[in-house]
Amino acid sequence: PVFYKDLPIPVFFVANRGHHADIGGISPGSMPPHSTHLWQEGASFKSFKIVNAGQFQEAELTAHLNAPSQYPGCSGTRLLQDNLSDLKAQIAANHKGIQLVNELIDQYTLDVVQAYMGHIQANAEVAVRDMLKVIGEKAFQRTGQSVLIAEDAMDDGSPIKLKVYIDTANGEAVFDFAGTGSEVWGNMNAPKAVSMSAIIYCLRCLVGHDIPLNQGCLNPVTVKIPPGSLLDPSEDAAVVGGNVLTSQRVVDVIFLAFSGCAASQGCMNNITFGDENFGYYETVAGGSGAGATWNGRSGVHTHMTNTRLTDPEILERRYPIVLNQFSLAEGTGGAGKFQGGDGVLRELVFRKPL
User: Fold this and answer.
1) What's the gap between Cα 326 and its chain centre?
2) What are the residues whose beta carbons fall under 8 Å from the beta carbon of 130, sequence distance 6 or more?
3) How far apart are CA 156 and CA 178, in angstroms?
């Protein structure tokens, strides 16, 4: 929360998100390919006050991070000091954000800053509404109704179905995932927030204006996801695959509905390894899908993944690894008038059993 001078309630909130390489579970890196329950994927937090009355809650936090060790075959975090240091860095980043927001208010006044924050969201909302009106009218001219329909499936056959009902008068839309497959016994389940992220990302891509990504993009949108489905699973369902695989397929389905672009590789291409003392995790790039007038890009992080890879020099210095090859897989993007982007070859050699 951002407090300003003597005002009793917060005037803004700041936040940041980090990726922690290991938080326990049944395998190093906390991204097990065969998990079936949430606890197998490491520590989970619904709500935890990490700083209380100005005091960093290290003991309580450590207990939470080590909690997975109570389950069979599971370990607590393998990188406790890294977790604690990274979380302190995130707290420091929030403090920096609070300082900068206060400086902004000092310079322009609270009313002006809050007004312009509202303008940014309002501008995004208008841009999305205008885009939905245009796409809805084109769909009506083509099919007689302002409805977009798309379907794709996971490798196990679980369908992801989407119908987008567009109100062209108001520039509003209902994203309805009815018919999507049920929760699976595995980790391809995706929490509802993943689908929301996919939707706001796709809307931002489809808008023909350069606008900051913000909640205003979702104001004209209603989302319906069947409870107990692949996209809204039960609380203890395993979800690591949903975050990095199903999320990409959801994006592919949305772009298919809007005729935005061809599918990407549909995956974040995850690598995770380690032992009882450390865990390492990364997402490798791939090829992006082609469009109606352009070729896809090769060797890029697409859609729901934007993480950077560790520099080879740092990777080989800090871990028992030799990076043998990291290059484009020439010719893997497919044929066509416009070709998809090529994938990537990444070959790692372990210098010890991992």
Assistant:
1) 24
2) 171
3) 19
CA angle 48–51–55, rounded 5-degree value? 140
Is the pLDDT reported for residue 196 higher than 90?
A: yes
pLDDT band, residue 35 (cuts 50/70/90): very high
Handedness of CA 24, 25, 26, 32 (dihedral sign): negative
* The pLDDT value given to residue 296: 93
Q: Which two tokens stand for residue 233?
A: 């699973």
**Number of other residues whose CB lies within 10 A of the CB of residue 17:** 5
Tokens of 235: 């609380």
All residues at 6 or more sequence positions from 21 whose CB lies less than 8 Å from its CB, including other chains? 29, 30, 79, 82, 279, 280, 281
Tokens for 194?
A: 């993943």
User: What distance in Å separates the CA atoms of residue 197 and residue 221, rounded to the nearest whole number?
Assistant: 13
Secondary structure letter of residue 41 according to DSSP: G
Structural tokens at position 309: 């890879």
Q: pLDDT of 66-108, one tens digit each?
A: 999 999 999 999 989 999 999 999 999 999 999 999 999 999 9
Number of alpha carbons in the 13 Å side-chain half-sphere of residue 195: 26
How would you label 258-276 residue by residue, b for 16+ Cβ within 10 Å and e otherwise?
bebbbbbbbbbbbebbbee
Say whether pLDDT at 265 is over 90.
Answer: no
CB 39 within 8 A of CB 71: yes
> Strand, helix or coil at 346?
strand
Pairing of strands 343-350, 51-52: unpaired
> Which stretches within the chain are classed as H helix?
58-66, 80-108, 110-143, 192-206, 240-241, 247-257, 312-318
- Reading the block at residue 43, the tokens are 């520590």
On whether the CB atoms of residues 131 and 206 are closer than 8 A, the answer is: yes
The DSSP bridge partners found for residue 328 are: 344
Distances from the Cα of 323 to the Cα of 53, 270, 345, angstroms: 46, 16, 11
